[in-house]
Amino acid sequence: MQHPDAAMQPVVRVFHNPTAGGGDWPTARLMALLAAEGIQATGWQSTKADGLDDAVAATTGPLIIAGGDGTVAKVLARLPDRRLPVAILPTGSANNIAGALGARLPAAPGDLRRWLLAGDTRPFHAGRVRLGSNPPIPYFESIGAGATITAMEMQPPRPLHGIAKITFGRAALAQALASAPPLSCDIAIDGLHRRARAIALELPCLPWTGPGLWLGPEIRPDDRRAVAALIGPADRDAAIAWLAAPGTPRRETMAAPPLSPWIGDMIMVTGLHGPLRIDDDRLTDDAAGARLVVDRDPQPFRIVVDPMRQPVRGRLPDPPPAARDSS
Question: What are the Pro residues biased-composition ranges (predicted)?
């Protein structure tokens, strides 16, 4: 049946990173896609040009973000009204935000136009972090400490994009995990304190982070609970094997990691020293033992999705032998 609003032409504001994913989606290609979809751009803003703050602040209706995770985060962090529908066109390398929510590029003419007119959205509760007495800062993938900081700062010999970038990132993380010294900290989850030692600590708000790493099905973008995921010193070898396990770096082949997430409404970490990562940047050069408080923003973003498409989950752990036998 034809949609009752099929004759309408969606009017959107477009935010575009023309260099994402190696520049496979330059402005002309994206303009041609939107024209073929019957979508009218009321404003066009390159996220690499001046004026981004003013352009986002002026947005009062549906918007399209074309780029990778950094581009999506840059625009969402400035968005004044989270009730506005946001369509993500994942043109970057990892595209963790889009993959976790089921957002994708249109596979057939009219797909994007149909999604925008239908108004089907999924909620995304971004993370919030407060370091010491500083005001809360939003984040869109993860807060990290330990080996992930070292891996993030390893640079390839030449610029990489797509699968090559993801493969390098996983190899860098494996190298960092191999020599990472343990971190010691106190983690309080809804008031329950645990002493922890870890070679990597992640506080994610997505099941996917970094170079396409799946952290497990317990972590959901539509959940309002915070998560702490640790790789302990005893799991060093298992974590390195986990990074090397997929035959290809496709999302569907990524197995569940050797960690058990701790989940609660609010997580407080104290006693950390050294640098902290927020998404792809440094939050601080040295946490210096300050209190780190993480929760999820109660007001979600509304991400436009194909109602027939589910988020990419990765490969679930194999059931234990008894469960296999009983089935």
Answer: 317-327
Cβ contacts of residue 96 below 8 Å, gap of 6+? 69, 141, 206, 208, 209, 210, 212
Same domain for 51 and 62, yes or no, is yes
DSSP symbol at 82:
T
Taking Cα atoms as reference points, which of 196, 93, 96, 94 lies closest to residue 145? 196
- For residue 177, is it within any domain? yes
Token pair of 164, please?
């090559």
Helix runs in 128-210, H state only: 147-152, 162-179
CA distances (Å), origin 1, targets 30, 139, 182? 29, 40, 59
- Based on the structure, what is the number of domains in the chain? 2
Domain that holds residue 141: 127-296
- Measured CA to CA, the distance from residue 249 to residue 275 in angstroms comes to 28
pLDDT in tens, 34-61: 999 999 999 999 999 999 999 999 999 9
**The 137-139 sheet, strands edge to edge:** 137-139, 127-131, 292-296, 267-270, 183-189, 192-198
Tokens representing 112 are: 């994007």
Q: What is the rounded CA–CA span in Å between residue 273 and residue 250?
A: 34
Measure the CA–CA gap between 158 and 43, rounded to whole angstroms: 34
pLDDT in tens, 96-117: 999 999 899 998 889 999 999 8
Residue 326 lies in a domain: no
pLDDT of residue 96: 95
- Please state whether the predicted TM-score (pTM) of the whole model is above 0.85: yes
The token pair that represents 182 in the structure block:
């343990």
Q: Tens digit of pLDDT for each residue in 230-264?
A: 999 999 999 999 998 766 667 777 888 888 789 99
pLDDT digits (tens, 9 = 90+) for 150-161: 999 999 999 999
